[in-house]
């Protein structure tokens, strides 16, 4: 397990481990980085080693690769730097990340994060991803397929791509400036506060799962396709964009623009 913590005062990298035997090697590279390496085959029995790293509060990027099956990583804070983490089935926990880019891959483990403000690429290969706070970036790419769920609070981005491959999607708000795609391949999609910037294109595709979507006032082009699942949509009072329904509406086959009641009308 790797635990990375940002110090409020230190301007050096401090390393502490439960096992200071020959397992770990620490060196400074020619470009000024600090490299910590470990031979997983030489780890103590039980795999309970914990490596703790304290980094400066700003401008210190982190790159972690864990080859041991199930080994996890926890990063409390990154400010104005990059973050890259790879695990082999282990979970990744993120605190407050405010950087240039975030690139995380768990190969089956879960991702749990508080707030992330950076261009983000996250892959879990079936693990769930849970955001307790905002996920903000010019580019936001999340892939939890096959079957991993995505649970988020507020998702903001110029370009957003979320794919769960069968897992459920839940987000309290989704704001897209350019292009946004959410695909679940059979999983349920619940998205509230879908909003654009005037020229955006947004697509929600559940691949057979049910969809519950709530629109904010500003939306340009939003395509909602359940491929057989039920769609429940609500609109604010005064919603200006025309609404076109293809499928069954109020028990009748429909392929036309229609007037839908707003949430304010009950």
TrEMBL record:
- Fetch the InterPro entries from UniProt: Toastrack_DUF4097 (IPR025164)
The DUF4097 domain covers which part of the protein? Answer: 121-237
One Pfam assignment? DUF4097
Protein's name in the database: DUF4097 domain-containing protein
- Annotated organism of origin: Ostreococcus mediterraneus
